[in-house]
Amino acid sequence: MQRREFLTKSSLVLGSSLLPLPVLLQAKSAQSAAVLPVKAGDWPALRQLFALSYDYIHLATFLLASHPKPVAEAIERHRHAFDVNPADYWHQHFMTIEGDIANTAAQYMGGRGEQIALTDSTTMGLAMVYSGLQLRPGDEILQTVHDHYSTDLSLQLRAERTGAKVRQVALYDKPAEVSVDQVVSRLKAAINAATKVVAVTWVHSSTGVKLPVRAIADMLAELNKQRDEADHILFCVDGVHGFGIEDVDVTTLGCDFFIAGTHKWLFGPRGTGVIWGSDKGWASCKAVIPSFSRSYDVWLGGSTQDQVPVGAHMTPGGFHSFEHRWALPEAFQLHLQLGKANVQQRIHQLNSQTKQGLQQIKGVTLHTPMAPELSSGMVCFDYKDMAADDVVKAMHAKGIIISSTPYRQSYARFAPSLINNEQEIEQTLAALRTV
Ligand SMILES: Cc1ncc(COP(=O)(O)O)c(C=O)c1O
């Protein structure tokens, strides 16, 4: 079966009747396992699903996920089928599987599947959006000084390529004392008539601060009321460090783009991510990398662009490490099964315990706010007069894996997650006291 034949058939069902039996049998293996082996809120059972070593306490798992059993098994299932017969396996699934993955993503994050593009990482999503946004000469992008390298460079590279203007604003000086009013008023004061895009990061991996995205969106909506539609400010969020923690439907945040890797808090396959865009957001963004969606058939002359869901069109094409991308639904299903509200409650509980404990330790300066409304899954701090990397090394020697923030001003960082428990937090705090 060649691509053209498949593309010109209206559905896979039609195509599958032409396939020999072995291919049809393999096709079943692309579907996810119906029963997952963990109940809502059962954290000890969840921990058992990971191959993570018990030799360490892992407080930096958000950097890059360890694959939980259902995800690892799905990857293996796809990998095997590709190894046995790559051409048939791909032809069998490529027409429908990315749409199915986007639909599962929508079940977890909100929105409609066709509004979701699949990426390989947060960085790829940020680069695609910030490269593809349509701007006119003189338009400006306003970002913050708290954003990650991936946002900074996506915008800097865009500016170098097109001459787009980028400006930065500080939303707070002392992260531990940040407030909703301070963030919203500083951002509002920095917006001028040329500002057409506001780019922020939901949870700052530099300080642990969680921005009040909804309050920012409400402020921007007020400003947009006073502008012509063509001059509306688009609101873009790097959501990676709230995604897989906070119990929200991203469409209620009020942003136009929500960009996140799924290989961090969500425990998705390494090398996966998503972009959700509002209809208004996608209408202002052009694809940068050709998709291997039905847009290919537009090129062949068999379809028109309006027949292609925008998320599919914005999903970068070329062949990928499909065994990873196609195993993403298992991660969403696992989180849905655990319960989004349970996940949020548990991660905040462990982070609050960590912050309360750190407050009691002489020599600790806590930089992450105590309030759960202004923080999420990471706790940033200074210890005595030690460099952050020295705290990381000293803790590693005690069997505890933490990280330092990869920013010019670097802090030590604990990131308690679903694979940790209360006892591990107490052990960690006790170990820090002896550093
Ligand atoms: C706020 C933020 N955005 C983006 C990234 C890059 O994520 P990815 O590895 O998914 O590209 C990171 C890295 O951890 C980050 O902290």
UniProtKB/TrEMBL annotation:
Keywords: Lyase, Pyridoxal phosphate, Signal. Residues 1-25 form the signal peptide. Its cofactor is pyridoxal 5'-phosphate. It comes from Arsukibacterium tuosuense. Residues 90-404 form the Aminotransferase class V domain. GO terms for molecular function: cysteine desulfurase activity; lyase activity. The keyword Signal applies. It catalyses: (sulfur carrier)-H + L-cysteine = (sulfur carrier)-SH + L-alanine. Belongs to the class-V pyridoxal-phosphate-dependent aminotransferase family. Csd subfamily. This is Selenocysteine lyase/Cysteine desulfurase.
